[in-house]
């Protein structure tokens, strides 16, 4: 197990400031120790999107079922959901492929006395995660990091793990269908990052680090992928320039 970097809520993200050495983005101890600040400042309307996703999840969650968060990072979403849903028959399971992130998640879960309700699993989204009996599966800002070759298999795994009327709640960075809007949205996003305190150097360095790691699809490509893997019903529940939230439901068949 990796050594846990001391975590304090409120630690500030300076990962890509002066002194950063060019390399691909990885969720290591340095990133994990400041991840909550990084994601809350880097993702527009992060708190509002999470609250909306949780509201949708409350509609679809079923007793005696599992709720998974694929790419759970430091468990912020699952901690919030545990406080909304007071039903011990619902098991909350966070999955992540970065031990450093799970280490920080464990610290937060224990601090909130929720170890009995939330469990963590080290696994890659590109492998069989052993999911089953799920009524809700979250995947927030995660699919974009999965290699395109493996995305269809992952969504099939999610679909098969869901119970009838269960839901996948997906939040992604996306590309615009029109290159004009795509460039505009990217420029507006970088302006947003500057407004929340990131320097031009930090913005440039992080863009370079993510170039071959974060690979967004267009919205229509994501919808097509969902349809191809079995989801007959899906819709956008959030949109901010090139950030999108999608809910997809596994419909019950006549036999069910």
Summarize this entry quickly.
With 256 residues, the chain is α/β, with parallel strands linked by helices. The protein contains nine helices and seven strands.
Report the CATH architecture: 3-Layer(aba) Sandwich
Distance between the termini: 43 Å
Q: Name the poorly predicted regions.
A: 1-10
Q: Assess the beta-strand content as a share of residues.
A: 15-25%
Number of strands: 7
CATH C-level: Alpha Beta
The CATH homology group name: Vaccinia Virus protein VP39
How are helices and strands ordered from N to C? Answer: HHHEHEHEEHEHHHEE
Q: Treating each run of at least 4 consecutive H or I residues as one helix, how many helices?
A: 9
Query: Mean pLDDT, nearest integer?
Result: 89
- Domain count: the total is 1
User: Looking at CATH, which topology would you report?
Assistant: Rossmann fold
Strand adjacency order, main sheet: 3-2-1-4-5-7-6
Radius of gyration: 18 Å
General description of the model:
The chain has one domain: Rossmann fold (3-Layer(aba) Sandwich), CATH 3.40.50. It is 40% helix and 20% strand. The chain contains nine helices and seven strands, in the order αααβαβαββαβαααββ. The radius of gyration is 18 Å and the shape is globular. The protein starts with 28 loop residues before the first helix and ends in a 7-residue tail after the last strand.
